[in-house]
Amino acid sequence: MNFHDARFKAAYGTAAQLPESTLPEVAFAGRSNVGKSSLLNRLMFRKGLAKVSGTPGKTATVNFYDVDGVDLVDLPGYGYAKRSKAELQRWSELIGGYFDQDRLFALVVSLIDIRHDPSALDHDMVTFLTESGLPFAIALTKADKLSRQKSLSQAAAIKRQLKLPKGTPMIVTSSSEGTGIDELRKLIRQHVEEVEAE
Predict the structure, then answer these.
(1) CATH number of the domain that 109 lies in?
(2) 180 in a domain, yes or no?
(3) 172 and 114 in contact (C-beta within 8 Å)?
(4) pTM for the complete prediction?
(5) For a Cys-Cys bond, which of 5, 24, 32, 95 suits 77, CB 3.0-4.6 Å?
């Protein structure tokens, strides 16, 4: 899987618009300001493929990126309050509608800001992924904002708080410094190969 071979594919505003799943999919979920777009750009060796915004909650659609025959799926960020109730409801239905479909899920990457304890919504996402039996990993973002020692202790604290199923991968990342990015690419490749082998 060549991460250099990446292109924007399509964006969908409702679950009903989502096309049938024909390629392995790696979905990225997290709070609105967790750094999802920056992480995706770093993974795909691109600066501006996924639009990075100073305004949290900018991704209001499900965005698909074709990476060498694998779909990376950028889900709308959750938990950002400065939107209308109707808009928040649409986002919720869009994320839920995506996961409710029969799709070729290779991996779901749940992004959590390493600087903060997991929010109630982060806990909800991990509980949902665990109960759904979906293959998932935790990517702790923005590690460059903390010292290495603080990153390690915070990662351990987050792991305890989330009560992750045994063996759930957790990767400490920094989009600006590239920390953990190769490890995440390797994990994605492994899961994609497993789906392709089925």
Answers:
(1) 3.40.50.300
(2) yes
(3) yes
(4) 0.92
(5) 32
